[in-house]
# Entry
Amino acid sequence: MGKVIFFNDQSDAESVVDVHLDGWLREFGPRTHEKVEAESVALLLEALEGRYPRLRFKLRDETGQLRRFVRVFVDGQDVSGTTGVTTSLSGAKAVDIIHSIAGG
Amino acid sequence: MEKNNKIRILLGTRKGTYVVEGDTRRKTWKVGPAAHEGSEVYHVMADSRHPGDLYAAVNSAFWGPMIQRSRNWGKTWKEIGTPLTPPKKERKPRFDDSDPTTKWAINNLWHLEPGLSSEPNTLYLGADPHLLFRSSDLGSSWDPIVSLNNHPARKDWAPGAGGACLHTILIDPRDARRLYVGLSAVGTFRSEDGGQSWKPTNKGVEAPFLPNKFPETGQCVHDVAADAADPDTFYRQDHGGMYVSHDRMEKWVRIGKPLGDDFGFTVASPSSAPGKAYFVRLDGMARVTGEGHFQVHEWNDKTRKWRKLVSPEAFPGHFGVQREGIATDNRDPAGIYVGTTTGQLFISPDAGKTWKLLPFSFPGIHSVSIANPA
# Structure
């Protein structure tokens, strides 16, 4: 059995966050759990879009802002309507990206 | 290859795409494949240059707008290149500051239009906010039409109630370089050079909601149809009434006044009836069927007379019909198809002589279009 190499194995563990993604997003590429090294929500999204180009514009629009019904939680705190994509991930452990309750 | 002898009615609805299949006699219909469940679909288009290819303008409330294509008459669908999305192999997540289009977010995709048969890989796309795109590879990638998207007058353009939609795209069948577009609350434009430059074409159209009633732009065009026999003639349903132009939209003449309230959202002109156009008249204030019943009016451009096609007793009710809500097929006599905001689909197999209501209720219908048999 070969050696298992984790994503960004050599990086500073402090800047790697556990990202939990909405299952509905799987059709655009990502798994429900990803590990991403990023210093802000914007850079985290950019990294995910780099890995999965079809994810581009699904979470944020063409100007880079979060879509209306996309919620981002940093360590359990909803930042969607406050600091949004500019939120720092310094010291953060987990990010949840899910869709909000909406529709009718 | 199996001979295609079906007429397919393509519906974009508030909750997905529907394909309704019928035979050429247009007597029996079957509600076929549904897709994009839960998403707003503003337009579905059949590309007659590539039989079986359907395109849908899907606007997901959660994940944003995306273009989906089916290559098997709607049985299965896949997302293709939505504007500004990089090609599959190009992994460049950064936003492109040199592309002026990225100043705006795309709110919704509104209309897909295939190029002429002489340009088999060309597609056009209209989007909100007032954006036009062209694809030369059947939708894998899209180029913004910068001359329109960055038009000098754009700073004065405002959205209508349905948004800043670019909803009408027409191509002169004699010359692929002559294009016409319709933009809500802005009006119509014509290009003679394949989209490099645009001229406003709203002369004669009243804008009753503006201080200047006859401005160069600012009219709220709702829909435009070209006459099948005379590509210089157009029928226009505007916020300010029903109009005709006989000179490539250089000037418009109001024809709807004999109807009283000539408000509506949609118009169609079938290939088997040159000189005729079909309008769905609505109440200008309530935006539902005028006088409490479904109405379709036929304009005869030769006699310059109107004919009411549906009796007041046939289909009473209050419902809306949106800007892509009417379509005609290529049979003779023409089939006329009207979808409503409350999910009814009205069908006339004989150019409006008789009408029936399909016994199936859809989600609210945004658009109706037809895939004709070969």
About this structure: Chain B has one helix and 28 strands. The CA atoms of residues 183 and 193 of chain B lie 19 Å apart. Chain B touches chain A through 22 residues (CB under 8 Å).
